Amino acid sequence: MPELPExxxxxxGIRSALRGRRISGFVLRNHQLRWPVDRALAKVLPGQHVRAxxxxxxxxxxDLDGGTLIAHLGMSGSLRVLPVDTPWLKHDxxxxxxxxxxxxxxxxxxRFGSLHWVTGDPLEHPLLADLGPEPLDKGxxxxxxxxxxxxxxxxxxxxxxxxxxxxxVGNIYASEALFRAGIHPRRAAGKVSRxxxxxxxxxxxxxxxxxxKQGGTTLRDYVNADGTPGYFRQKLYVYExxxxxxxxxxxxxxxxxxxxxxxxxxxxxxx
Length: 271
Ligand SMILES: [Zn+2]
Prior knowledge:
Elements: H1 4-18, E1 23-28, H2 41-44, E2 50-56, E3 59-64, E4 67-72, E5 78-82, E6 92-98, E7 103-107, E8 114-118, H3 142-149, H4 156-161, H5 171-181, H6 194-215, H7 220-223, E9 254-258, E10 261-265
Antiparallel strand pairs: 1-6, 2-3, 3-4, 4-8, 5-7, 6-7, 9-10
Helix pairs in contact: 1-6, 3-6, 5-6
Bound molecules: zinc ion (ZN).
The site of zinc ion (ZN) has 7 residues, from loops.
């Protein structure tokens, strides 16, 4: 599943290819994505210029003259900039055509991706309005987390993955950040000290920042037709390492189930 670092990498890749370009057409081959895609886009989009390409949580926002396209990659989607005459693949669902050649094409075998057109402030769209802060922005820190966690009994792992608390901390990054902060994944969110929330915020920023940095090396995958989306070969401390020795203390890494997801942790390093 594309996580926040992959979406950020996609955002950077398509930004350089799209910015300042004019849309010359929109082709919709399959409107049945997670939500039906508006067929009227074929009439609405042509002639508009791309003002900006940005990201909010795992949504890509493409600002045009008269509104914003909000794209989500879902479970298995990818957006790539391709030559306009590139043959369609089986799971290619829509294409935004650009002036002077080239197009932005969406491929998604599982069709959990989405595309919305909004004419008002896209950040007020129901999909985006209630999202928590960006993990790499200034407002995300220990005091913020401690404030949100006050009195909460929910496990810290689920708390940090709650998109209303902070966006983009997926399963891999939650396990890795909790390891870096030395916090047991089952600890109640309200029972974690301010100092340890400082460490957790720093851990979240570090794991996501490193993954985005790695993503830069696979940027080519998103702007050329040369293969599958880039995944991140980050050095993982706990994720999917159950039974293997902790890289810090040698204790075997353990796995437990939380909210139907697997959590990995070191029983010696995390309390
Ligand atoms: Zn350990």
